[in-house]
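Tokens for chain A. Residues wanted.
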């Protein structure tokens, strides 16, 4: 990827994100089906898809509302699930934070897990990418994923019960996040945070309204940060 022009960077991002379409298609279809089963009509389902554009948070909100949880709890838990987007944003600031405000606002709206993972990996591997090329690459990644999310959410919502249960579309959810998380685990703090989150979500699965997710996420962030701090202090002490 030498001598990246903005146009080449856009199409490179488009191509790099292409494999994730195989996961986004069943994932988005599953949301459409689940939303209709939860009582949302076609307009409500697509409004949620377009406005929220965050699969995990959308599934969480639907599950809580089906369990008759208060709307405040559904919103709070969905917000907690989506707090990862704030961390994504912080990670992307050194690379695309120079863009004008209107572009950054559009980037924030379009941000999805798959495209973020691809972008960060490429930016880290190619620190020589020009600023304009980094912005173009970001949009190339996002512009592939988002139309498929919209389109197949509509398909799932429209055909609804016509999709056989034997297809088990819910396989896409864990596979998607395993594929995203695996390549990003590169250090001891990463592994510690992942381990703590996995164990915590099992230990706190009894907490009502899925609030165990918030507990697990908090413990994972604290443990990862403390591990990184410990390793840094030990390295400084050894250097001294």
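Reply:
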């Amino acid at each position: 990827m030498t001598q990246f022009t903005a146009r080449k960077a856009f199409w490179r991002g488009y191509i790099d994100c292409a494999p994730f379409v195989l996961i986004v298609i069943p994932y988005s279809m599953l949301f459409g089906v689940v939303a209709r089963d939860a009582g949302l009509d076609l307009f409500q389902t697509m409004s949620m898809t377009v406005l929220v554009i965050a699969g995990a948070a959308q599934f969480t909100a639907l599950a809580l509302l089906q369990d008759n949880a208060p709307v405040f709890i559904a919103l709070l838990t969905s917000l907690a699930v989506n707090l990862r987007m704030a961390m994504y944003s912080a990670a992307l600031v050194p690379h695309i934070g120079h863009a004008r405000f209107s572009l950054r606002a559009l980037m924030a709206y379009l941000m999805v897990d798959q495209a973020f993972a691809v972008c960060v990996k490429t930016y880290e591997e190619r620190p020589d990418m020009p600023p304009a090329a980094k912005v173009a690459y970001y949009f190339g990644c996002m512009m592939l994923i988002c139309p498929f999310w919209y389109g197949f959410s509509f398909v799932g919502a429209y055909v609804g019960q016509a999709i056989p249960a034997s297809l088990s579309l819910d396989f896409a959810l864990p596979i998607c996040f395993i594929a995203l998380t695996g390549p990003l685990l590169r250090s001891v703090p990463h592994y510690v945070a992942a381990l703590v989150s996995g164990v915590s979500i099992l230990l706190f699965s009894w907490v009502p309204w899925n609030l165990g997710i918030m507990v697990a996420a908090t413990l994972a962030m604290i443990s990862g940060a403390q591990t990184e701090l410990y390793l840094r202090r030990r390295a400084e002490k050894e250097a001294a």
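The radius of gyration is 19 Å. The mean pLDDT is 82.
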